[in-house]
Design a protein that fits this description.
The protein has about 450 residues and is mainly α. Among the domains are: about 60 residues, no CATH class; about 120 residues, no CATH class; about 80 residues, no CATH class. Helix 6 crosses helix 8, helix 18 crosses helix 20 and helix 20 packs across helix 24. It is flat, with a radius of gyration of 25 Å.
């Protein structure tokens, strides 16, 4: 390996990072691709004495077989006006390797048009995965994009408009989905990409359109588990925790065995992320390794860590905490997610913790919505029933309509019944009025009975 003396320092810099990464697959891939790996390190880290970013090192060492693709992507971007400084080069190299490979694939589509390629590098790198999939499926055409860009159109607008029209055509006969598409034209590429992983007419398709606020996480996780339908199903069954789950999958990207344990306990993702971040911050890597060695060890670690933390921070709730010690990890994780200002209402309602947890997650931790939720805690069961119905029917904007109007529900309890009887009507009413207090539940029911269009309101 060290036959070439001029490469010895570069190779050593690579091997010096191996202990800190702890690859599950062993070191064979790294040594088999040492020249390409060292080349990436040289491009990104510069001089041999420079500090190595650990996230970068983990990404490259854990994907050593694709180091050549990483090299290719970095050089391609630099040759076309991108990644002109050390920070942008580092950020590029820290991208998921599937994104870097997609950059190379998309660049091949624009080989005959330097203008389109440069426009892609300057405006479209973050959409490389979406573009690669769109080209594969025949949703976009490189010649028409090159022509439009050459005529003065921006790359983002040209591609976005092309995909948007394709989606409108695909769903022309589905008024509900078409409306969602038209309300979110800026997400056309993301929607099109995420749809490529689900079957048309499936429950997953409906869930996707009902959760466009989580489209970034859905895309990332779908891309990761494209060839693992069981794990993809787990993602769609746990969209309430998609943000935490996506962060954890990213952190564990080069540790497939750890990901297996994570996905078997996906519903606990916020608590897992909270504990992982704390251990990672203080360098307790052995605890992290033990934690992800099995589901049993994961749960035990979270429970023990959560119990100690809760008793230390909230001794006045010691009796309640100890009587719920089996879910101490989840309780601690939820408080960390929502914010310490909500510790009191969370700890005061541990007898309904499962419902509280689900609803806190569905508020997306928006402080105004959390305040309304806890101000109406006496109707927790009713709120949970409505929230579950909105989730079950995959109604776009449903959770936002519910949590934004809990004060209206409190002053006009008839809305609790309307939400269960006519959930889609309730959501549309919120979208048009912006505040359900502007329309009484009695009038709303009359409109439903008369089958009047909301436009008449």
């Amino acid at each position: 390996m060290f036959a070439n003396a001029d490469k010895a320092d570069s190779y050593k810099r690579v091997t010096d990072q191996l202990n800190s990464v702890g690859l599950e697959s062993g070191l064979t891939d790294v040594f088999d691709n040492i020249a390409d790996v060292a080349d990436v390190f040289d491009q990104v880290a510069g001089e041999s004495g420079a500090t190595i970013d650990q996230d970068f090192a983990k990404n490259i060492l854990g994907n050593a077989n694709d180091a050549g693709e990483v090299n290719k992507a970095i050089k391609l971007v630099q040759e076309n006006g991108g990644a002109s400084d050390s920070t942008s080069i580092l950020n590029l190299a820290k991208k998921d390797v599937s994104e870097l490979k997609a950059i190379n694939k998309v660049a091949e589509e624009f080989e005959g048009s330097s203008g389109a390629l440069e426009a892609f590098v300057s405006q479209g790198l973050d959409q490389a995965l979406q573009l690669e999939k769109a080209f594969e499926n025949g949703d976009i055409d490189s010649d028409s994009i090159s022509s439009s860009v050459g005529s003065g159109g921006t790359f983002s607008d040209v591609v976005g408009n092309s995909v948007l029209e394709k989606l409108r055509s695909d769903y022309a006969s589905n008024a509900d989905i078409l409306e969602v598409i038209n309300l979110n034209p800026e997400k056309a590429q993301d929607i099109n990409f995420a749809l490529s992983f689900v079957s048309k007419g499936s429950a997953q398709e409906s869930a996707l359109f009902a959760n466009l606020d989580k489209i970034a996480q859905i895309m990332s996780l779908s891309n990761r588990f494209e060839s693992e339908p069981t794990k993809l199903a787990i993602v769609y069954n746990n969209l309430d925790v998609a943000a935490s789950l996506d962060q954890m999958v990213s952190e564990l990207s080069i540790y497939p065995k750890r990901i297996d344990v994570l996905m078997a306990n996906a519903d606990m993702a916020p608590s897992i992320l909270d504990a992982y971040n704390e251990y990672d911050k203080i360098g307790s890597f052995q605890i992290i390794e033990t934690m992800f060695s099995s589901s049993e060890n994961l749960k035990q670690t979270l429970s023990n860590d959560g119990l100690v933390k809760l008793l230390s921070l909230y001794p006045e709730y010691a009796t309640l905490i100890e009587s719920n010690s089996d879910k101490a990890g989840e309780i601690s994780g939820l408080i960390a997610l929502a914010g310490e200002q909500y510790a009191q209402p969370i700890l005061s309602n541990l007898d309904q913790f499962e419902s509280v947890e689900v609803l806190v997650l569905r508020t997306k931790q928006d402080s105004a919505k959390l305040d309304l939720l806890f101000a109406n805690i006496e109707r927790l069961s009713d709120i949970k029933n409505i929230s579950d119905k909105l989730a079950l029917e995959n109604i776009p904007g449903g959770q936002n309509a519910l949590f934004s109007n809990l004060d209206a529900f409190k002053s006009d309890p008839g809305y609790y019944l309307l939400a269960l009887d006519e959930p889609r009507f309730l959501v549309r009413l919120h979208e048009i009025t912006g505040d359900l207090k502007k329309v009484s539940s009695t009038l709303a029911y009359e409109l439903v009975a008369l089958n009047l269009s909301l436009i008449h309101i």
